[in-house]
Design goal:
The protein is an all-alpha fold. It has one domain. It contains six helices and no strands. Helix 3 packs antiparallel against helix 4. The longest helix is centred in the first third of the chain and has 22 residues. It starts with a helix and ends with a helix.
């Protein structure tokens, strides 16, 4: 039951964020650059991401070779990102700036998010 709820949650999140990335790329680039220059925002994001990832890992610890495993990997990635934001924010920001130095990379992220939304939604929403 938790797996289905989380699959629906992530499907909705990835669907909306995928379209935001694809349709509002320039705005998103400006907003994320502004956020990376604000230490308070980084601290808050680190605390929130760490707590969110920890809750996900504690409630959904299923390393399986199916769609439930994807949710577990997403949970662990969130937890690891939160830890990095809290312990090594400068390195994570530098890594993020290298990755996103090409503005077209956002299109790839958007398409990947839409793909994840379809994949998780297919497994979580009864037809």
């Amino acid at each position: 039951m938790v797996s289905i709820f989380l699959a629906r949650f992530f499907a909705a999140y990835f669907l909306v964020m995928g379209f935001v990335i694809l349709l509002r790329r320039d705005w998103l680039i400006k907003a994320s650059e502004s956020m990376m220059d604000n230490q308070g925002v980084i601290l808050f994001a680190g605390i929130f991401t760490f707590m969110f990832g920890l809750v996900l890992v504690l409630f959904h610890y299923q390393f399986t070779a199916d769609w439930r495993g994807v949710i577990t990997v997403l949970a662990w990635l969130s937890l690891i990102k939160g830890i990095f934001l809290l312990l090594l924010p400068e390195r994570l920001i530098a890594f993020r700036r290298v990755i996103t130095s090409n503005p077209n990379i956002y299109y790839i992220f958007g398409v990947v998010m839409l793909g994840l939304a379809v994949f998780l939604g297919y497994h979580a929403i009864p037809f």
